[in-house]
Amino acid sequence: MTRQIDVLVADDDAQMRRLLQLALSRSGCVVRTVANGVELIDAVLQQTPDVVITDMRMPGMTGLAALNRLRASHPDLPCVLITAFGDHDVHRRAHSLGARSMDKPLDPDQLAQVVGELIGRRPA
């Protein structure tokens, strides 16, 4: 039996956090959620997940800023930046930080597939 994928989701929208948590849980992931970039950094430092999914626009710290900070302490942590405002520059910057990027609205099955690809296996 394989271990469940531990995913940490950061999004300031409570409904989006819940939607992602439900979708990824159905795919066999264990999902923790936080509401902003500062909480994301703290949560990763307390317990490193297998994958981080972060929204771009959040109060206090953008998803890109959080990814930049994470790279200092966790350079190989698989990350996905999600955004409703994805322009070419946002996607380019995410990729330069070693993260995948996806535009909202998200297809939950596609997101679960990306999570599985990032750690080299498919969610259950």
Q: How would you characterize this protein structure?
A:
The chain is α/β, with parallel strands linked by helices and 124 residues long. It has a single domain, classed as Rossmann fold, CATH 3.40.50. It contains five helices and five strands, in the order βαβαβαβαβα. Helix 1 links the parallel strand 1 and strand 2. It is globular, with a radius of gyration of 13 Å.
The rough form would be described as globular
List low-confidence stretches: none
Assigned CATH architecture: 3-Layer(aba) Sandwich
| H/E element order | EHEHEHEHEH
Number-wise, the strands total: 5
CATH topology tier name: Rossmann fold
Helical amount among residues, as a percent range?
40-55%
Largest sheet: 5 strands, parallel
Mean pLDDT: 93
Strand content: 15-25%
Give the termini separation: 10 Å
Give me the CATH superfamily: Response regulator
Structural domain tally: 1
> CATH top level?
Alpha Beta
What is the alpha-carbon Rg in Å?
13 Å
